[in-house]
Amino acid sequence: MESRGYRPAGPLLDISLITGRMTEVFLPHWICVDDVRKPLEQFAVLHMDDCGDAVEKVSEVSPSHVKLAEPVFSPRAVLMRAGFPVKVYCNMLLYRTNTAFLTLHVYLIPRDPALQQVNAMDRKESSYGYKVIQKPDPEKSLKMNDYFFLTSDLEAAEVSPKVDGLHTGIKLRYPRGKPNFFEVYVENANRNFSLTLRPDREDQPVWECSVRKGPVHIHFYSFRTKDSLGKIGAATITSDKEMLLNLMNDLKQEELKGFKWFLKNRDVSSGFPQIPVTLLDEADASDLVDLMMKTYSHRAVELTKDIFKQINRNDLVEMFPGTSFGSGYR
After folding, report:
1. Where is each Pyrin domain found (predicted)?
2. What is the residue range of 49's domain?
3. DSSP letter string over 29-76?
């Protein structure tokens, strides 16, 4: 579409009409029209069929939609004339690692649902071990092709990209390939901290959020010690019971139900004695930890790790000392 002087302004929609006839249709867009002069001349709709692509004029423009009269249904998308800066509504996408050293990937992209699918950002970040942090998006529209800077109130936080040791901004644009992103690295995050997004040469932030420690946090760090004989051993900051309780509290109700199912149906040859079913069925998270510690003692940790794997909570397995150091943020 750039060859025709247009840029994307709304999602591509494949619309079909089963019966009857429709006189008009409203298609969504993500452009802020407050500063757009003569919007009817700037907006258009992409029409796609077996004969090729065509650009159609719109009959009305609202803050969230354009109206197309007498539509012939086919895959369609709202377009905007290129060549002058416009403001768009944007998404902020945050992903975090689940390791000792916190790393965040922060994306700033136009509010196009297709971008997350086309670039497979969720799948890509997940394949690297990153997890989503849900945060609100900017309320105000942001100007395309402007540069934006991300900063943190945590002195230990390192924000990239950088050039010659100085922070550089990321240009807001419609990504043709893999979107660029900010990386925030914190080696030892010992408190909550905030992130702030500002346009270049402006002091007023357009977006702020707090990154808070989640239910799985620094209590699960372990460290190495030497006893009086010089032997290396492991010491944990919290007891096994406290650790298991914190992890159990992170399970949803269905996951806790699945955990108890696997606990009840373990092979007797595994060497773990059975806990009475009547006690398990009525147990909440804290009761379950008490039962397991009373029945299995220190082996409760080993058993919990096994069952976490069976209910697909490997992220909690990583929180155990000796597996990997972990810190959860939200």
Report:
1. 232-326
2. 2-81
3. --EEGGG-SSHHHHEEEEEEETTEEEEEE-SEE-SSEEEEES---SEE
